[in-house]
Amino acid sequence: MNQRSSNLLDEALGLDQVIEPWPLRGRVVAIEDQVETSGSFVLHHLLKRSLSPNSSNVTIFIAFSQPFSHYDRILRKLGCNLVSQRDNSRFFFFDMLKLQCPDGDEGITPEGGLIALYGKIHKTISALPEISWKNVSIIIDDLSLMEVAANGSSDYVLDFLHYCRTLTSEFDCSLITLNHEDIYSSEDRPTFFIQMEYLADILIKAEPLATGLATDVHGQLTVSNKGRNKVSNFHFKVKENVVECFYPGRS
Amino acid sequence: MAAAKTRTSTFSRNLSTAPPSHGPGLKCGPNGTVFLSSGIPDLDKILGGGFPLGSLVMVMEDAEAPHHMLLLRNFMAQGLVLGQHLLYSSPARDPRGFLGTLPSPAASKDDKSRERDPDQEKGLRIAWQYKKYFGENQLDGQRDGKHEYSNEFDLRKPLERHFINGPRIDCVSIQDSDLSTLRDRCATFLSQFPRNDGSISCAGRIAIQSFCAPQCAYSNMEWDMLSFIRSLKSMVRSSNSVAIVTFPPSLLSPSFCKRWQHMADTLLSVKAIQDEDKELAQLLTGYQDMVGFLNVHKVARINTQVPVILEATTFSIKLQKRRYLVLECLNQAPVDGSSGTSYGTSGGCSSSSKTGNLDF
User: Fold this and answer.
1) Nearest to B263 by CA among A35, A109, A89
2) CB-based contacts of B276: which residues, under 8 Å, 6+ apart?
3) How far is CA A71 from CA A48, A68, A165, B101, B298, in A?
4) What's the CATH code, domain A21-199?
5) Transmembrane segments in this chain: where (chain B) (predicted)?
6) Is B196 strand, coil or helix?
7) Residue B272, SS3 per DSSP
8) Is A238 an interface residue toward B (CB < 8 Å)?
């Protein structure tokens, strides 16, 4: 039952049939959540899938919100050891918790800030053997903090994301981002947010239930897959070792 | 009492084998976290043990009432009583003056339980009695484990001077210092408690009151404030301390208010209640003792992905005998759906208020 139900998310993402070659290659995945319902579990799930033992995926994780120990503990409970994956060069962790881009025009220098970060990503990918380029996922947790690190210059962050997107076409790797939807809902025309949604091939929204908090159902996920032109909606319950997904009323 | 003792002895033995011993006022939590007390035993219980070390707690203030001060006072006093270091910052010109208003711990537990017993026999609220016994057993347990975790505070008795005058307290006025000064002060303060895997001997507490108050020179620099909070969070994460920041959300633009909320590990909000809200008085039992509501929006989840779902998210803040701060679940009289709207006024943006708005 667990095995089957957790496949609902995988199914929507196209991860259920084959894991090799990586089904998300060349795609941009945007995850959006809210204060009440965190969507970080989707990141963890995707990280776990991409590091699964029967694939040769490489993941570059850009962490703005949590330290390594946090992800390590969570992924260990999901059955994936990040430390050993890091030693095997399948997992690259960039700790950006303290990154602060210099103010004003000085920020746009190759030495500091996001340009340097992009350089690091590019270098990491090109250093990999050519056959694994297709199987690289870049995960960013999360974009709103990246904006803060860039002193509120969303254009700068957007530039960075465009650059990362060119990586998806250059190397055929995938880009997975997390952002918070409710931050932008009060703005008139949130350019940053709209552009990000436009860039995304797959959009995953985590929302609380309209009826409030419940212990059995932690929220609902809406996955819109632009490539397959398909929208799926289901409820989820997050557990330490698995995310249970089920259709409404089937918990 | 005896039963409690035996229970704790087995508990402490398990503890001593697994994690290293901790200093006073610290307690092991799930997922390798260590809790420190908020200074309000009820709040600790609601949050599943207290505030985990390395977490950022944000409290949304009520624009009209200083209820966030109640939380801050207890949080600070608890730290001082346990000998923990404290950094306090407020928009007042002389933040140190606020320390004079900190409450003192209620008389030691044995005395208190003796004192209270006759009261309780007189009292009519049986449910409260049980609650108290339960709480005290737990507290005793901690004491048998050789260190205290939390105290109950008597809001009418000021904290003894020797606690306040110690060298462990640092005060910053954010009225005349800019954000980089405040950041440096926090960084030097937190450097005393670096995180390593060994035992934790001492923990620090940072309390920042009304962070975006208009008195501060930077109050219109929203991105700078946000980046201060972000750097505070990352500094706190890598140290053995807890930072609590209160802010009036009405002063921030809605989108920044959401950003701040996302920043928080534990997110609380306080609301005052109007003196003569007759509609509400009919709805809730024990209305006359209430001073306000506390909403729990988010509970810290460090090292885990499972969200904490509380049975209730709105609690009433009561002053018991005008001395002790107590949090209670709302006991609602059975009502028809139409009165659900008045909940919306009390609940703010919590999900509990959403359920209240539904008409079944």
Assistant:
1) A35
2) none
3) 11, 5, 25, 41, 19
4) 3.40.50.300
5) none
6) coil
7) strand
8) yes
Assess contact for A6 and A42: CB atoms under 8 A: no
Tokens in use for B345?
């006024």
How far apart are alpha carbons A15 and A223 in whole angstroms?
13
**Cβ–Cβ below 8 Å for A35 and B253:** no
Q: Over the stretch A29-75, which tens digit does the pLDDT of each residue have? A: 999 999 999 999 999 999 998 898 888 889 999 999 999 999 999 99
CA angle A116, A153, B60 (to 5 degrees): 115
User: Are A35 and B298 in contact (CB < 8 Å)?
Assistant: yes
Is B305 in Cβ contact with A240 (below 8 Å)? Answer: yes
Q: Among A135-144, A230-239, B105-114, B189-198, whose mean pLDDT is lowest?
A: B105-114
Alpha-carbon distance of A92 to B169, in angstroms, equals 41
Do B313 and A183 make contact, defined as CB atoms within 8 angstroms? Answer: no
**Are B320 and B289 spatial neighbours (Cβ–Cβ below 8 Å)?**
yes
Whole-model pTM? Answer: 0.83
Spatial distance between the Cα atoms of A228 and B135, rounded to a whole number of angstroms:
56
Cβ atoms of residues A149 and A6 within 8 Å:
no
Domains in chain B with CATH codes: 24-106+151-355 (3.40.50.300)
Task: Answer whether B221 touches A (CB < 8 Å).
Answer: no
Query: CB of A186 within 8 Å of any CB in chain B?
Result: yes
Pairing of strands B324-329, B314-320: antiparallel
Instruction: Provide the residue type at B57 as one letter.
Output: V
Which among A69, A182, A218 has CB closest to B258?
A182
Report yes or no: A193 at the B interface, CB cutoff 8 Å: no
Domain boundaries, chain A: 21-199
For B350, nearest residue in chain A (alpha carbons): A36
Tell me if residue B271 falls in helix, strand or coil.
strand
The Cβ of residue A74 has, within 10 Å, a number of other Cβ atoms equal to 26
Interface residue B157 vs chain A (CB under 8 A): no
To the nearest 10°, report the CA torsion of B340, B346, B351, B352.
-50
- The label of the residue with tokens 């709209």 reads A194
| In contact, B163 and B79? CB cutoff 8 Å | no
Q: Give, in degrees to the nearest 5, the angle at Cα A47 between A168 and A41.
A: 115
CB contact under 8 A, A67 and B227: no
Q: Which residues 6+ apart lie within 8 Å of A182 measured at CB?
A: A34, A35, B258
ipTM: 0.91
Do the chains contact at A213 and B303, CB–CB below 8 Å? no
Question: Do A41 and B305 lie within an 8 Å CB cutoff?
Answer: yes
Model confidence at B130, in pLDDT bands (50, 70, 90)? low
d(CA B191, CA B147): 25
Q: Pick A238's closest partner by Cβ from B238, B307, B354.
A: B307
Determine the longest span between alpha carbons in chain A, in angstroms. 56
Instruction: Report chain A residues whose CB lies below 8 A from the CB of B55.
Output: none
Query: Which member of A36, A66, A238 has the closest CB to residue B351?
Result: A36
Task: Tell me which residue has tokens 């200093």.
Answer: B23
3-state DSSP helix/strand/coil % of chain A, to nearest 5: 40, 20, 40
Q: How far apart are CA A129 and CA B189, in angstroms?
A: 46
